[in-house]
Amino acid sequence: MAAGRHKRSIVWKPQPKQVAFMRRCEDEALYGGAADSGKSDALVIEALRQVDVPHYRGLIVRKTYPQLSELIDKTMQYYRPAFPKARYNASSHVWTFPSGAKIYFGSMFRTQDKYNYQGKAFDFIGVDELTHFTWEEYSYLMSRNRPTGPGTVVYMQARRIREAEQNDPMLKGRVIQGVADPAIFNESQGESIAQMQEKYPYFVTWRPGDHTRIAGKMQLHYRLAFDAEGRPMFQVFDTCRHFIRTIPNLVYDESNVEDIDTTQEDHIYDECRYVLMENPISPRQVRKEVVLRDDPLDMDAHRSPIRVTRV
């Protein structure tokens, strides 16, 4: 019973798996499961966590706007009973709460639709049916996950990371660097993704990878070449599932036969090229002897080995 003798009703009660998901404190959390396993419910409820903060902004995304209808129906079921004064704007696809906090609903039908979110920041981003999105689309959404003001969870999580960087002897004074696609340095439409990620809360310094495609392809060939004992220089763990899934399926471009067909799922291949081009090597030299089957004059004893290159 409440102070005014009004009963409080339970709008939603989480299942054990939903509890485990919502207790995660990492910057990213993935919730998998079969249909009707509670993933979408957990997503729309998790978006409510900070609606008491006036400047809080949340975003829930599906691939297309029609697919959002089910999620919006869920918010009608949960948000209105929990926050009777909250209002939903059907034309803008946004819930506004009494504090001023807002939860938006968006889509990304085409990859170029990602620019609809350029310059925007969201404290929380929920992606429903993640497998419908490409890595490029998802990573761009990640770059929009920035604090909109003090007091949100994004600030608290980032503050813990920075504290560790200042106190951990293995991290103190070090700069986190990475090699990335040169496309993230594009400033033609404003601040580049690379510049954004150098700032709070990421603090990652990127440098552009060498985008020389043929040379990068050959670096991969050189490292996959076997030595005399049948061992390559490049080995892949069985946990690298997407590498194993995509790399063997790559084919050459029909019009540019020396290069990979870029219409395929080649993101991991590109990542490998950038990393390998950071330390390019020469092709492995393999010595091979030519043995004569019929050698009545014993010429093989005086024959010098022939040096060949195998890549």
Automatic annotation (TrEMBL):
It comes from the Bacteria. It holds the Pfam family Terminase_6N. This is Terminase-like family. It comes from Faecalibacterium prausnitzii. The lineage of its organism: Bacteria, Bacillati, Bacillota, Clostridia, Eubacteriales.
